[in-house]
Each structure stands twice: as structure tokens, then as C-alpha cells.
Write a structure and sequence with these properties.
Structural class of chain A: alpha+beta
Oligomer: homotrimer
Strand order of the largest sheet of chain A: 1-8-3-5-6
Radius of gyration of chain A: 16 Å
Distance between the termini of chain A: 6 Å
């Protein structure tokens, strides 16, 4: 059985991190399904999803890594095309990826206690995002 | 229901990027399935898959990031084993990953307008790749 | 049909790499299913999973990349919160990701010959891990 839901998410710009573990867990609980996988997918090319211990220090460390990898104020060929300023956003998001698949068993996600599902905004301005949560289970 | 297809892809070497969004969308459309997930998987350890705004500037920026992370001409322990010259390829591919899972609903991928599915060759020579597109849906 | 198994894995600390391809393949073979996807998921926020040519050189090169990206002995805001010393572990694991989805066809994983499934420990001490292998197939 396949159950899909879409969740709006407003972000404030580059580095804005959202813990959506509760929404993912609720989608599984409300599905009535016992076991399967849940795919969390961020529509758009300047945001990404992963798991992390969602506390401000680890999130800040993670953002600092991306600033080192792809500095916001470096020059990007993407800027030349559209006059955009978000070349760093595209590079960061493509590296981290828009998709995460998590198994669930006995109606519970197999996440660890200190492992949360995080959507990370990389765009240079706030965006209205849509998060797709899709369950394939039985 | 599960529907698998395999798609050959010839590449020209490190940094060669292919937009396969059309093939993935066609596989979903032809499956006759309404909703589910499609997994795009690159067989082999020196290529990877992600999503990106597929325009030459962003792709060049992304390749530049990988050249910074794992320079092609640096020395790699992998070279010592086989006399290969593609240590940078293995490191880059393992970081980005061979697999991408995308939900579809109403026969449509949940990608954004500027979000394409890209296979990125990291090997130092051209390769004949096989891309697996597998749909789990109903 | 959905079949889940959990596999304990003891690790020796940061950089310890485990080839679990055999366990993943065995789970698929024992499922009796012909085609589908297998999701490999590492519970916890300081380990990750990907594919690589699993030979000591490539694994060492890969670990060296992470030491460059997020040096073990750098300062991390995460350390300030808990007095932990594993800020590098969290950053590395969130970047690489805890989940890998692999299609299988005719009871065989679609991996390449030189492409193995690797669990990589990033924590600064040995851990007892649980690897979830979940098959969705028919």
C-alpha cells in the first residue's frame, strides 16, 4: 500500500534547519501500516534532507562545513547564467541530496534516539518548500 | 507491483554529466502505475546520481567542488594497489552515492521544475554504464 | 511483501569500515522474493552507509577525505553542548547519510563486481551498531 502526503515548510534562508521527525513519525502512525519504508523528498534544487542529532551545535557545525565546501560569496558559473546569487545553494544541495529513505517496523521508524530527520535550506532567501512524505508498506 | 528497466549510458570521462529525467519520467509513465517510488541506481563504483538544476554553470560548479575535495592528480592509496589512476573517482562516487529514490504521485515525479536527475561520471576514462530504474508502486 | 532483519555490528571507532555486501545479498536470497528494493539503514547519528570498491586503499582515501573535510581535532560547537569529542563524527555522518537503497532483480543485487556496501563508523569510540536491512519486493 502506498500513502503520500505533502507538507508545506517555510524557511528563512541559507542554513535554516528544520527537524521534521515528528511529521514523518505521524505519517507512519496514521497510515495504519505495520512495516515498510518512508521516503522523505524535498522538491526543489536548493534544499536537502538527512539525519543528524538535531541540536544547535551540531547543526551549526554542519552548516560551517558547507560554508567551507561551497562559500556563499565565492564566484559561481551558475551566477553568470541567471544573475542569481545562489550558486553555493545548488552545489550544497546536490551534494547532500533531496531524498532519504527510512525503514519502519511495528509502526516505528528505525531511527536512533539522537537521530532526527532534518530538512536543510540552502537557498540564499527564504522559500516556501513542499516536503513529500511517501510510505510504501503493508 | 515492481517494474525494472536497465538503460545503457555511454560517458566520456570524469565530470561528464547526463540529465536522465526524461528516461525516469517515461519509465513511470509507461508503468501504468499511479503512485509509488522510483529508484535510480548506477551500477559501478565510479559514478553517482543526484538531482541538480541541470544547466552548464551549476554542473561546472559542482564538478569544481569535487576537484577541490578530491583532486584528480593527487596521490591515492588506491593507485598503489592496482596501478589505477582513478582514486579521485572512487572517493567522489562513494561520497555522492549511487542511488536516488523519488516519489511519484498521479503518474508524475515529485521533482521541482528546475530539479533534474543527473548521472555524473567520475571515472577518468569514458565508460559504458548501466542505469537501473526500478519502480515500486500501485 | 516486506521483510525486515536487524544485524548487530561492532565497530572499533572512527574510520572503521565494514563490507556488509554478503549480509545484504543473503537477506535478499533468503527472502524468496524475485525483484524489489533493499534498504540498508544505520541506526544512530555517527555512522553512515554507501557503496565503494572495498579494498584498503580506497577506504583509506575515503577516510582521508573526511579527515580533511571535518578534522577530528578541530573545535566543534557540538562539543560545547555535551562535553563530547565527536563533533567530527556527527558532521561526517550527516553528510554521507544513514540510508542506501539498492534494487534487486532475479534475486540478485544490481551492484557492480567492484561495488560493495560499506558501513563506515565515524564515532570516536567503538560502538555496537544495529543495521536494518529491509526488503520491499515481490
Amino acid at each position: 500500500m502506498i500513502i503520500t502526503s505533502r507538507h508545506p515548510l517555510s524557511t528563512s534562508g541559507q542554513g535554516d534547519a528544520h527537524d521534521i521527525t515528528r511529521q514523518v513519525g505521524a505519517a507512519v502512525a496514521q497510515s495504519g501500516l505495520t512495516a515498510g519504508i518512508v521516503t522523505v523528498f524535498v522538491t526543489g534544487s536548493t534544499a536537502a534532507v538527512t539525519t543528524i542529532e538535531f541540536e544547535p551545535g551540531a547543526v551549526a557545525d554542519f552548516n560551517r562545513l558547507f560554508e567551507t565546501l561551497a562559500p556563499r560569496n565565492a564566484s559561481y558559473q551558475h551566477h553568470l547564467r541567471w544573475g542569481d546569487d545562489n550558486g553555493s545553494s545548488h552545489v550544497r544541495a546536490a551534494l547532500l541530496g533531496p531524498s532519504l529513505t527510512i525503514p519502519f517496523v511495528d509502526r516505528q521508524l528505525t531511527l536512533g534516539t539522537w537521530q532526527q530527520v532534518m530538512v536543510l535550506e540552502f537557498d540564499t532567501r527564504g522559500r516556501r518548500r513542499e516536503i513529500v512524505i511517501q510510505i510504501v508498506g503493508e
